[in-house]
Design brief:
The complex is a heterodimer.
Chain A lengths: L1 E3 L5 E3 L5 E2 H7 L7 E5 L2 E3 L4 E2 L4 E6 L5
Parallel strand pairs in A: 1-7
Antiparallel strand pairs in A: 1-2, 3-6, 4-5, 4-7
Chain B lengths: L1 H19 L3 H6 L1 H16 L2 E5 L3 H13 L3 E5 L24 H12 L4 E5 L8 H4 L5 E4 L4 H14 L3 E7 L2 E7 L7 H4 L13 H20 L8 E6 L4 E6 L10 H8 L3
Parallel strand pairs in B: 1-2, 1-4, 2-3, 4-5
Antiparallel strand pairs in B: 5-6, 6-7, 7-8
Classes of the chains: A mainly beta, B alpha/beta.
Chain lengths: 64, 269
């Protein structure tokens, strides 16, 4: 599974039918700070992902 | 009596049309953009009232460009005073404005940019108690806030009033923007279910420029019915690598703020 991290780097994880929240835990990313897109669409943390999926982890900004 | 009532309504409509018609100075001032969307489009902008939540980094860009574009009534609210550390990005304010309320400084700047429009400066905290009064008569909400709790409030009010919310946020060289149209798109809570930690954020003026300009462009397009909006699209700006990306958003049928509307959208109603 290809994962684009908030800094733009690419990580590869061998995983099958794992929840997004578990991916974040493995990557040591605070789920409150990010949203995750699965195959280009924002997905909830309890959604499962498989080896053929692509994830993009986006750090949410709040300033103005 | 019916014909008298009809005459009154027609008179009111005629008066409103006359007030929104352009004078010669306005035709000159907006000439370059009238080439894009005609005098009819410019008159639509003139008839539009906007509420700008915040007169900081994003609020500076949003308000300056909306004033320059000729939105007829701008209400800008901010409870803070100008500080030296604001001046790397908050181009509404000058060094001479240090210590002044940002809303007052904004009034002077925006009137100087465009005396043809109406500007209302509001020194007030945006909260549950004040929001209804602040939004009186406004057609659009421009999100120029620096925290998500207030953004969520703007989101709820936009949903209840069925008016669009143009979201923007920045940190350092990163930014995001999307357009929330109640009943048509995911709401802000659908996209961002939880507020990120409210930590102090780095800020570069040009990032505010990118995102604020996108928000204004969206507002112009929405008002005039032009092009494609950032509907159910979250635009992501990475200034460090000069990249624009986007991710798709969907209404959340379990959203605490818009669940009923989300359900209808998903079911195609």
């Amino acid at each position: 599974m290809k994962i684009t991290l908030p800094d733009g780097k690419i990580a590869e994880i061998a995983a099958h039918e794992v929840r997004i929240e578990e991916i974040l835990r493995i990557l040591n990313i605070n789920p409150v700070e990010v949203i995750v897109a699965k195959n280009g669409r924002i997905a909830p943390e309890d959604e499962t992902v498989g080896s053929a999926d692509e994830l993009k982890i986006v750090r949410v900004v709040h300033g103005g | 009596m019916a014909w008298k009532n009809a005459l009154s309504i027609e008179t009111a409509i005629t008066c409103q049309r006359m007030m929104s018609m352009l004078n010669d100075a306005e035709r000159n001032r907006y000439g370059r953009q009238i080439r894009l969307f005609g005098e009819e489009g410019q008159e639509k902008l003139k008839r539009t009232s906007v509420f700008i939540a915040g007169a900081g980094g994003l609020g500076s860009i949003v308000s300056i460009y909306m004033a320059a574009a000729g939105f007829g009534r701008i209400c800008i609210a901010d409870c803070d005073s100008v500080e030296l550390s604001n001046l790397n990005r908050q181009v509404l304010h000058r060094t001479k404005d240090l210590g002044r309320y940002k809303a007052d400084s904004a009034l002077d700047t925006l009137r100087g940019i465009n005396p043809e429009i109406s500007v209302e400066n509001i020194v007030e905290t945006i909260n549950e108690e004040t929001i209804d009064q602040l939004l009186q008569g406004c057609d659009l909400i421009m999100d120029a806030m620096d925290n998500f709790p207030t953004r969520y409030l703007l989101n709820r009010v936009a949903l209840s009033r069925k008016i669009p919310l143009f979201h923007g946020a920045i940190s350092g060289l990163q930014g995001q923007a999307t357009t929330i149209i109640p009943g048509k798109t995911a709401c802000l809570r659908c996209i961002f279910p939880r507020a990120p930690p409210d930590a102090a954020f780095p800020a570069l003026g040009s990032t505010c420029g990118v995102i604020g300009s996108i928000q204004v462009t969206e507002a112009v397009k929405y008002t005039l019915g032009l092009g494609e909006l950032l509907q159910n699209r979250l635009l992501l700006w990475d200034g460090l690598n000069a990249c624009l990306d986007e991710v798709a958003c969907l209404p959340n049928p379990s959203c605490p703020d818009c669940a009923e509307q989300a359900g209808k959208m998903i079911n195609g109603q």
